[in-house]
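Following the same procedure, sequence and fold were stored together, as reproduced here:

>
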Amino acid sequence: MQADGAHSLRRRLWWLICGRFIGVAFLLLLYLRLGETASARALHSPLAVGAAALAASLFYALILRFTRMSLTLQAGVQACADILLVSWLVAVGGDLHSPFVALYIVVIALASIYLGVRGALVSSVACAAGYTSVMLGIGFGWFGTGGAAGAGLTTTLASTTGLYDVAFLFVGLLAAQLAQRQSRADVQLIQATHALTNLRALHERIVESIRSGVVTTDLQGRIYTCNAAAEEITGHTADALRGQEASILFGPLAGRIDESLRAVAEAEISPRYEADCLTPDGLRIRLGYTISPLAGEGDSQMSGLVITFQDLTHVRALEETSRRQDRLAAVGRVAAGIAHEVRNPLAAMRGAIQVLRSEVDGDTAQAELMEIILRESDRLNRIITDFLTYARPRRGELTETDVREPLRETFTLLRHSPETRAEHVIEEAYPDEPMCVLADGAALRQVFWNLARNALSAMPAGGTLRVELRHVLPNRLRITFTDTGRGMSPEQVERLFEPFSSSTTGGTGLGLSIVYQIIRDHGGTINVRSREGHGTTIIIELPEEQRSEGKG
């Protein structure tokens, strides 16, 4: 606050110096203009005073620019010098009613502005003393005017001097009162300005610290501000969102805005909505949001809308995971019972057909039908085997496994698989250091193989399959499979890991269900992000193996 006051006083001193210089220069030009009708003697003394004032202004400017003298002291020195110059100007005029007496009032007013209450009072007393001294000099002939009435002060001189002195003191008191009020007003204004600035900064920090996204719009639904959480959740920057329709984040809002405003008007709880939002990377996230009116200057005036929202993607994924686990557990129990009931009679049937087949010639219709029965019985046996694997997966031995190894082996086999064509591009990105988890290596290979084959089947016309392995906090490994295939609808993604939801590779339809179960049994998570026509990304996270420092 003190720094602001000093800066303001310095700026006003520059204005005072420049104003004095311009004013004196104008008066000098006016006097020179009058030189055609006035005598040189009459002009000599005022011109000298004017030249002295110009020189003083230049001197003040040099002091203000190149010295560190107190600004208040500089203002006081200038006020004293101005009183002396005005007294000199009144004295050289030699007139009891000199028009230059009014300059004393100007000096008092300026002193009250630059020096406050004390400066106004002191300058008024100094002006009265200076004017009285000049009048005494005129009355006694000290300035070569011949004196007043030859010997002493006349009644006119005394009354005029007294009247002006009282006027100077009265102006000083009035200026002091105004200066005091102005000083209080300035202090209050500065305090209010700082309080407003601090309050605004506090509000901005509060909004930026809220972990929920906050978006403000105008009455037309165009976004004009958003906080850091909104940028983090949506992936859009504030500059990219500014001026855009809010519907790019929350979908159609017209009906929901009316419902929310009606709820506010009726003092009811604001309804909560959900919408899917696409990030700049093409990922679909689930947002939950509420709409509130943004108050304007008046209590009843609305200037826009405030939309607060949260990312519900993880919450909805957990809910779906819970529902999926319940469904899979039920299907698994049914599968185990059916598999045991079907497998034994199937084995007997297959054995009988094999015996009959050995007694029939190879080129007859009966032989061909028996071959079909044998192939279908083998397929049915594979389905039953997958059922049992799904219902009661074998418990492999968990060992410290470098995830890079099963990934490399899987993709080496994939490159030599007949399913991989020239139009397919396979990319691998692994770190240089070991990435170890406590896992069943054979089960991980099964997971990677199923995911890779599904990715290739989603790219019948060719495309890119990329696998990436990296470390993520806290203490987890992330394996990402990304393809540029045909993608899936939200409904397909939701049912992807359910048994028999789809069979894109000609298998039993249990492959991805088994993948999900293997990852879950390893304490990991698997998530899918997909858009129709834009490919699919499958993200697996596994807990990293924590090795003690003493372990060799």
